[in-house]
Design brief:
It is a single chain. This protein is of the alpha/beta class. It folds into two domains: about 130 residues, Rossmann fold (3-Layer(aba) Sandwich), CATH 3.40.50.10860; about 140 residues, NAD(P)-binding Rossmann-like Domain (Rossmann fold, 3-Layer(aba) Sandwich), CATH 3.40.50.720. Helix content is about 45%, strand content about 20%. The chain is built from 13 helices and twelve strands. The strands form two sheets. The protein has a six-stranded mixed β-sheet with strand order 2-1-3-5-6-4, sandwiched between helices. Helix 1 crosses helix 12.
């Protein structure tokens, strides 16, 4: 049986085994997928996994940077993000690193028919999650991308990695401008986990066509998406589709075939609501 896993700390909450078991059932592939708690150095846990028959693994917090250093070679998305969420053992024994988070988000935005090409995009937050989605987003040729963050220097650091393509703003600068309009607003901050709202003035939200939160809940909405909907945004979504899409891209890297994402979204949503 093919052995796969997700490595991180904490790990008990991970939905990855459920998702990948459904993928395997869909495609009639015999594999096992487990959670592995990383208690010490990531390298030791990964070495042990691959030494005992591991073929590939997903990597979650806080190990994505260590996984990037662990890989012998990186995909373009992983190199741009400086983080790895998928490792694959190649036929020659080397390990390749990938980042499917950003491409997974793009798949979900297209599934939802949210504006992308020639869209004016506002991204809230400047942490690792946002760093991982910037290159895939820019490859979709938006008209403009603005990153707003409480600490301006972090947004500026991301903008400097994509000169001329990304603008950096503090919340004060953003809110001080009049007549700003964005087609798509992406919340890449941890505000929804903390139960708070990002400091974006209501007029900016009200003018948006679509809003997406990278976080997800069992209910399918977050405090951010609910606030956007109440502000008049017509299209809103949480990150459950991104979670499943990035997992499907990992599965495709390992197996050479992409599972049915929409079917798995329906399945997982029903499971979560039943809990």
């Amino acid at each position: 049986m093919l052995r796969y896993a997700v490595l991180g700390n904490p790990i008990a909450h991970s939905l990855s085994p459920l998702i990948h078991a459904h993928f395997a059932q869909q495609l009639r592939i015999d594999l096992s997928y487990e959670r592995i708690l990383v208690k010490g150095p990531f390298k030791a846990a990964a070495d042990d996994f691959f030494a005992h028959g591991g073929r590939g693994c997903n990597v979650t917090l806080p190990c994505k940077l260590e996984a990037c250093a662990y890989a012998h070679k990186l995909s373009a998305a992983a190199a741009a993000a400086g983080a790895v969420n998928t490792l694959k053992q190649e036929a020659d024994g080397t390990v390749s690193g990938f980042n499917t988070d950003g491409p997974g988000l793009m798949l979900d935005l297209k599934r939802l028919q949210f504006p992308l090409q020639q869209a004016r995009v506002l991204i809230i937050g400047a942490g690792g999650a946002v760093k991982g989605i910037l290159l895939p987003l820019l490859q979709e040729q938006p008209a403009a991308v603005t990153v707003v963050n409480r600490t301006l220097s972090r947004a500026q650091a991301l903008a400097q990695q994509h000169p001329g393509k990304v603008q950096a703003r503090s919340f004060a600068e953003l809110n001080a401008q009049s007549g700003l309009q964005f087609d798509l607003i992406i919340n890449g901050s941890a505000s929804s986990i903390q139960g708070t709202l990002p400091d974006v003035k209501p007029e900016i939200l009200a003018a948006a066509q679509a809003a997406y939160d990278l976080m997800y809940t069992k209910a399918g909405t977050t405090i951010f998406t609910e606030h956007c909907r109440a502000s008049g945004v017509q299209q809103t979504a949480d990150g459950i589709g991104m979670l499943i899409s990035q997992a499907a891209l990992s599965f495709e890297i390992w197996q050479g075939v992409r599972p049915d994402i929409a079917e798995t979204i329906t399945y997982l949503t029903s499971v979560l609501k039943a809990q």
